[in-house]
Queue: 2 jobs
Job 1
Amino acid sequence: MEQITTDKETSINEFKKWKENFDECIKECIKKSSSHDIEINEILKNLALNPATSSINKMTIVSKSKTISAELKMKGDYYFCGGLRKPHESDYFDSAFMEYTKSIANAPPMSHQLSSSYGKRAEILCRLKLYTDSLNDIQQALDNNCPDNQKTKYYLLKAKCLKVLSHSINNDHDINRAYQDAKYWIKNMNNNMRKKYEKLLFEQINDNLIDAGIFKKWNYDKFIPILNNRHVNLPSLSDSVGLKYSRRFGRHIFAKKNIKPGEIIAIERPYAKIYYGDMKLRFCCHCGEQMWSSLPCDSCNIMMFCSNKCRDDANDDYHAIECQVLKFIQKFNLQDEYFIVTRIICKAIVEADCSLDTLKNDLDKIHAEKNPLKRGFVNEIFESNKISSIYSLLGHSVKDNFNSKIHINSILISYLLITKTNVSSSGILNDRNFDNLKDNYMFIWLIKLVQKLILICNTNSLSLVGFGDKPEGLFQGIYTNISLFNHSCCPTVASSTQCDKLILTAIQPIAKGQQVYYNYAQHYRANEKKDRQLELFKYYKFICKCKACEKNWPVELENSKFNKKIYCFFFNYDRIIKKFTNVCNDLSSIVMYCENFKNYDDELPDILKTINDASDVISKLYYYCGKNSSEYLLAVDTFEWFFRSWNTPNLKLS
Ligand SMILES: [Zn+2]
Ligand SMILES: [Zn+2]
Ligand SMILES: [Zn+2]
């Protein structure tokens, strides 16, 4: 089981119990305190009285466990066998892949266990025709303290993968080398194994391994959206839009010139993102690409990376600090929203060279800036990747209202940052026990900062969902430039994703001077007004006054997904409607291609041309039928559905 060492033998479970009991105490503190500052002081005073608080200081969590890794590998073996027996039930192999990946995440670095988990995943990847990924895993199996009696097995697998790949590349030298190595290490096997592998070796050398094809990965290079003219001050937005401020709308984005449907308005990578649950095993936590031969963090079992480069970059940018905090908050069962807050604060601390004093200085300056059109801008630029931009998203009008959970978790994250990482502050002494910290102004400042970041995340982070048959949540991300758009239930831009990049494209003609709206909750076609308004208020704390809400537009379609019956009704209407029908078919076939791209031999249909055609149809319908006509709105819906759906490939392995 888990190895947990503490001086006072306070177990994690006891701590969890204590945390729950403390909930009541905090509620009392909140009730009797007249201000936020007094509230925090009261809570800290009470926490300091409890011995469990200071025990966190001495707690160490060892995330890697040979036993747990071995159990997960066994689970993987079970699914692998199931898959071999029933090769057409594709879920078996996918489950085996996931269990082996978890096993790798949990194995101690440079252990036999890690080597054998990589070895098993290499086998399944080879089976799934992911030969290059299999080769990566074989190399990891060999490099991580591989027992000599296992090496023949891996070199033989290596030769097999290379041999299949030799149909497209010339690698005879590498294949021969792998066979030589396989032969060389056979001496370390026991008699039975030696006989078995001598036979296998002979068979494989004489087998031509006909070209069985290679697993088809989604190719992101097929369509790379680009911003034609980048905005000088808002680097992730197009120059066709600008930033305005008004009391009613706050900061918002408007069209500086007439915008045609199909025009790309924004392309942005998130400041921070956290993949939900097991999605962490499928996507690189740093660059967001789907991965198969992933690498774990050496210290925690939470984050996985697509490459050494991403692992190093992540460690430099945030993970070296974050890792020490995440290990605890994972054990304490904090929800995903605290993972993303931890990511943001760690990134910000690294940006400030690990000095809380520098960070405080920088953020105080943003706070002092009274002009909302300048707040968060550094050298007149609202960067995607700077904490100043994130911090400026804090609405000044929102009254701070924290429940006991936010209080205890923000104190916990701050305390972990102070005691488990190398952050420095001139105001905090080296003796960092809770009793000393409870009155420390820098510690209290850090707690309040974490609380502000929780508020910012609650109202600005987006939940990105994969589409297809069963939509699944992919990740929670926070974007800076894109956070400047206001919401509408009948938006003028639609979003699509490429890895973690969010792309906004105009789906309606937007006249010069008009505000540009994005939809970050529900569309008027998908949900009744009262449901939309409830959700918007619950998550984003505002009452929507968009045109669909004000005029109470009906939900005409069952959902916003394109409905064939309805467009058939308009068939033969006139030339535009005919073209509309054709465009709808083209859009649908692109989406179908994306959902099933592995089963298509031919190339992706021409996306750019289809988008241009759709843009043309929408502009004409707008002109001929009017902006409130069902024809026009249906076309816009279809366009919106297309952007949501077209670039979300099927994740599962089969
Ligand atoms: Zn990566
Ligand atoms: Zn880690
Ligand atoms: Zn609305």
Job 2
Amino acid sequence: MSTINQSRRRLFSRNKNDAIRLPWVKSSVEFTDLCTRCDKCIEACETQIIIKGDGGFPQIDFSIDECTFCQKCVDVCKEPLFEDLNNVPWQITANIQEKCMAYQGIWCQSCKDACDTSAISFTLSIGKAPLPNIDKDACTGCGACVAPCPSNAILLKNVEA
Ligand code: SF4
Ligand code: SF4
Ligand code: SF4
């Protein structure tokens, strides 16, 4: 059994930092060791943002929609993958890349309009398009700002990655 787990870990360990797994997944577990790839979370997700990633393991795709933190994925999963639901769901935050239209001098605030927690603000400067700032403490990592961005400039990343 440990041999299987070791080989699964080798195959999929690069996902630990790259792929965003489900909310409330324990950071202390190796996701690919415990997930049975049963797809129940994929079927349960109310915004359909859980997709089959490398090796058939579920991962989040914010280009589809946001996480509403409905907890349906947690409810249907039979494996000991999740921590106390009173804790924050994950340690991921939004990051704006240079291809953001505002950095090209174009007035765009689509991400700000999508953010329910007002984590995105824009700094006015004379003669330039306002530039976005993300308050990492206010960002819940919901991903609602990702899909509306016309230049696909927002990446959700693990804080510790
Ligand atoms: S419900 Fe749990 S075990 Fe099944 S695919 Fe999702 S995370 Fe893996
Ligand atoms: S908490 Fe709800 S919306 Fe978020 S990934 Fe799980 S099922 Fe989908
Ligand atoms: S991920 Fe959610 S909370 Fe964070 S900046 Fe984007 S919309 Fe706001």
